[in-house]
Amino acid sequence: MSDNSRVRVSIVGVVIVALFASLFARLWFLQMGPEQKLGRVVSTLSTRVIQTASPRGEILDRNGKVLAQDVAAWGVTVARDLGPKTRARVLGQLSEVLGIDEKNLRANYESDRQSPLMPAIVALRVPLAQQLAIREHREDYPGVNVVALTIRSYAYDGLASQVLGYVGEIGADQLKQLKSKGYQAGDVVGRDGVEAAYESVLRGKPRRVTVQVDPTGKQIGPPVRVDPGTVGDNVKLTIDINVQKAAERALAQGILAAHTFQDQSKEAVAVGYKTLQPTGGAVVVLDVHDGSVLAMASNPTYPLSWWVGGISNDHFALLSNAGAQNPLLNRATEGQYAPGSTFKLVPSIALNQYNVLGASTYVNDNGSVRLEGTTFTNDNGIRNGSVNLQRALTVSSDVYFYNAGNDFWKIWKLDPQRGLGIQQVAGQLGFGQPTGIELGDAAGRVPDPTWKAAYAHANYKTAKAKQENAIWYPADNIFAAIGQGDDFVTPLQLANAYACFANGGTLWTPYVGQVVTDPMTKQVVEQHAPKARGKIDIPPYTYSQIAGGFAGAVSDKAGTAYPPFQGLFVPVAGKTGTAQIKGKGPTSLFASYFPVGNPQYAVVAVVEQGGHGAQTAAPIVRQVIESINHLPPTPIPTKSTGKD
Amino acid sequence: MATITASAGRRRTASDTSLFAHLDLALLTLPIAISALGLLMIFDASRHETALGGLARLYYVERQGVAVVLGLIAMGVTMAIDYRRIREAWPLVYLAVVPLLVGVVVLGRNHNGAQAWFQIGPFQFQPSEIAKVVVVVAIAGYCHQHRGDLDAWRVGVAVGLTGVVMAIVYAQHDLGTMLVIMVCAAAVLVIAGLKPVHIVVLLLLAASLVGAAVVTGKVHSYQLDRLTSFANQSTPRVPAQDQTPTQFNLGASKAAIASGGFEGAGFGRGLQTKNGFVPEQHTDFIFTAVGEDLGFVGGATLLLLYALLAWRLWRIALLSSDFFGTLVAIGVLAMFAIEVFENVGMTMGIMPITGIPLPFMSYGGSAVITSFIAVGLVLNVHMRRFS
Fold this sequence. Notes:
The structure holds two protein chains of two kinds. Chain A contains 24 helices and 23 strands. By secondary structure, chain A is of the alpha+beta class. In chain A, the strands form seven sheets. In chain A, strands 2, 3, 4, 5, 10, 18 and 19 form a seven-stranded mixed sheet that branches. The longest helix of chain A is centred in the N-terminal third of the chain and has 30 residues. Chain A starts with a helix and ends in a 16-residue tail after the last helix. Helices cover 72% and strands 2% of the residues of chain B. Chain B is built from 16 helices and two strands. At the A-B interface, α1, α2, α4 and β9 of A face α3, α6, α9, α12 and α14 of B.
């Protein structure tokens, strides 16, 4: 080594001694000298309340199987206040570390369904290793947080979606109403179905933590105050998930099969359909003795998990675009359909109650009848010969009920009260008004002269048109008798009416929520008591005639539903329905109850544009009944059987 | 007479049989001792972080422990290779690290980011850390090759070699590491015989570069904030909510150290440390935990350990049998000295805040392993000085 270098090395040594000396000196002054007082200064910090939602209660089926529950999951959030460049960089880095396509992360970030007030949740269920990779490099991920979230989890995802309903961020209107109950923006609430109906019990009391924060908003030190909050109560439903599953599967299979059917209806042929184009349907299973809902299926459907963590725009489009046929809609409670011949239950009771056509009176059915100057024909054009009430129900003779409707119209001109017997019985069976189910439902419609006048007044422009269209024609009453025209029912109403008839005349309020329990103490908080809404008097003879007619429809060789139920050992009573819809395929309906001697359950299936009742709806009902009786399902035929 | 003979005899036999006879035991022991203290302090300082994040209590300690073990192995490997072979192969060493450095930048670019690490299983490896040692080796190797003949052109080459690495590290937003590399290279060059006129030119160049960076806005606002907070701390006390984050950090850090007093609050008793008032406390601000919990006694002892480390490195720079050994020892000495001075100085408010780790103390695997490799290099020089 040269002397020059030696000198320079020595100089370096001196510099380093100086550096260390200054560190020692500084340490001494800071800890032992005048600045020691610094340590005694307590920083004045601002506080902030962090409210975190407590887990929602669980939703269980009638056998205690958990359908929906909150589970803990680690999520990755990205702050809203990042500049576009930083945000793109952060999402790019997250994509790499999480192994999720950057497009998906951006879609989550930009989803309209996520709160703009809260950091966006871009990934859920993040594994520990990746959480740590992010945590350890905070400086590389500005605005990114790894947070513990509770998310809704569905053990039977895709089943009973419309019944359970989804959870989502509280809407602005809802927030205004619920603010007094401690809700705040960004809170998750039940938005539909059971989740919404039982929001007040399912929701847990939120955990509130008061913390000190530094100027950047970062938490410092332990929380100042903690209100622990409580978990929400559990709700046990009357739904049996196995029956629900069978109902949904049968409905889906039935709709699929209907796509292969030739559409023979005049209406459909006129607009050029070749095969049926069903757009959806519903199945309802009710316990006839208390109105509890065993299963409630609606098709098309979707998995509730789509909503978890904020639904993506793509998924939302699948739920909301026109071609999707609105999977969010619970067709069992909100779908309103012309009931077709299933409505004949109503005139059947009415004409006995108001003594119009006696139950033993025979009518000659030549396939058509001329009434008040108009010819009314049977939908299928078949001549059924001489029919009484029982036979008319079995073979679905429209002519018999055209006569009944016409008779009521004639009476109406003399005695408006008695003449509207069909409408009154419809009301007693729960049609034309919501059933009162806690999920909420549509009212349907039972047309009568008052309604028609009001409707004409509201929908026609000229005074003349208003006047002309307000007139209650015979045809109005005649079509009302066979469930065509302006009648609208929901599948739930239909099932409830058949349940009412089956149990001998008690109209129950249907319900899905059975018991509310506290998950901690296991104590029952609320027990649902079945509520009777009304009672309709059905004399034994009338009952046996109608019940016999329904049983015949399934078991008599001439019965409209004989083919689809052939070989089923469970005695079923039911009525097919085929409602003609202008410009569309007919609505396929089947309303039933079983077992015949001692009815337990009412089962209804409705398929939009599904063809004949016996074609599509009846085989669906058969599968549901088989499932309740633990029988193997009979495959739904893919060619037309039976007639209406 | 007898003593001299014995001594000479021991030396001769030892050099013939075992290199370990010339192992600098003090230099070997010091990093291990500091690392042990580091593990303790990480355990102490990470309690708030682990509690907030829901991590296992020993999470950081375990990972740092793994890094220390890996560091010791890396040090052993470094010592096993004759440093003169490293001296000859310096271009290879240099060329090996550049693709790594470029790799992370490109990787980050592809994802719109500037990421500074590779993911290897559960660990992340930061090439910019090892780049510090590589620059020291490369510049030392180059200067050794042209010893006594360091003209302006060759100084230019050496500056270029350093500049390339600094530029890539800067692209990763790692300003602190860039400065450390600059200081290391400068120290090596000065010892290598940089002429006074070159020193002046280089200083002017550096000053104008910094000036240009500030004027053109290439320095991020948070970086400026850090620099200015250091300068602005004598202003009257600002309420907590009105402080910039850096002012707040600095205040919290100084308050924590000051509250330690002479003997400290006791291990695990420091309130500010326990409650997480000081940010990044298990990494860059670990000295505050030492200051608060162990007081002046602990802080001064730690500084003393670093001073001893510096002395051993300096001593080897003088003892080295070749010029390369001297230069490497000086480079490593400069690296540790600037890191300790900058890091400890920043926690006490006499240096601006940058993200430079405290050698062997701060949580961070890449830094620990790099520090051990650096010590291994110098040990290598020492134990082969007679062979």
